[in-house]
Amino acid sequence: MIFKNNKYLKHVLSLIILTSCATASKNKLNQTFQAQIPKEERTLEEISEYKKFFDNDLNVIQEFLESEELNQDDRREMKLLKTNYKKILSHKDYVLKLNSGNKYSQELIKFIYNSNLPIKILWEGTSQSALPENLLDYKVNGFCSSLYEDAINSILRNMNNDEGSTLVIYSDQYQNIAQNIISYSPQIWAIQYTASNFQDYAAEILGVHSSNKRFERISSLNPNQKLEFNPRPRKDLKEIILLVDPKNYKAMIPALRYHGGNNFKYLNFISALEEVDDPLQLLDYEDSYIPLSTYASKKIGSGDMKSLEGFLTKSVLQDWLLIQLLDQSGSKSTYVSGSTGSIFYRSNSCSRREIPLQKITSKLFSD
After folding, report:
1. Where are the alpha helices (H) located in the chain, listed in sequence order?
2. Residue 52: which of 98, 76, 88 has the closest Cα?
3. CB 344 within 8 A of CB 351
4. Please, are residues 31 and 21 in contact by the beta-carbon 8 Å criterion?
5. What Å distances lie between residue 122 and 242, 326, 332, 334, CA to CA?
6. 212 pLDDT more than 50
7. How many whole angstroms separate alpha carbon 83 and alpha carbon 330?
8. CA-CA distance, 332 to 284, in Å (whole number)?
9. What 3-state class would DSSP assign to 143?
10. Apex CA 121: angle with CA 115 and CA 126, to 5°?
11. Is 40 left (phi over 0), alpha (psi -120 to 50) or beta?
12. What is the pLDDT of residues 40-67, one digit of tens each?
């Protein structure tokens, strides 16, 4: 027990020391980090994530390669995984150039430490930066497009093509994104959210207020006759895309569902995740759709992901580091289930990313 406690203490102290490097003065010494984490046999799924790298991983891959149950495609993928792991583990000159004042340095150092690779950080002047200030809206080095752009494409791929059936509700800060979606098809129409009362706003745009007014006019023709009436939402809409301020999703979706019921398909932009800290808060979006990586949904379902605080930013950083490692090690083109989405890495080119559009249900929380 004492040995385990000491080992844990060393691990914590190492993290503190590494983290302090990111918050010290700009006159940092260039340093190489390689965590002395005990090697352990891991599952093939963990190895395929390309987040941590151990020599023993090659033995696990080889065991699967020797299995007679593998089909031809799986065997090809396994050989590629082994080839890339050999390249990554054998490379000894990893170098990352980071801005000394970069606000993401501390988080990156944690990822570097956990990778178990000899990665050297060169601290550059404040005028240079390998990462943009906004990791979500701007393309990071190594990717073909930004996270926001890929999230838009995820929605567009799953959108209804019937004329006039799609409504986009957007806040002012997402006006450009809304315009991009509208330009995709003349069948899409948009309305800016400027109200302060979600219930009244939802009733108005879904046509419930109009339905009530029609009933009042009909009732006035014969006041003595009692008519049964349930206000009906408009029938021309089939789906609603939400591009609103992150803190407004939790109120907007229930208001729309209250007046529209299950008559519409609700598609949330990825910004809906920015105000979610506890994974269980995703149930506020139950039965609606959101761009969410398979990696994240599996971690949420297994209980391994306890918090979503800063999830999107951390995911972009994790995948950016992955691309740097694949590039510098000379790895072959491959597919990786990344933190932000499915990553199609291409050597000597930008990497393409696809984010699945997932329906949020209680099943998400059962492994």
Report:
1. 2-23, 44-48, 56-65, 72-90, 105-115, 147-157, 175-184, 198-205, 208-221, 249-260, 294-302, 311-329
2. 88
3. yes
4. yes
5. 41, 19, 26, 28
6. no
7. 10
8. 41
9. strand
10. 130
11. beta
12. 678 999 999 999 999 999 999 999 999 8
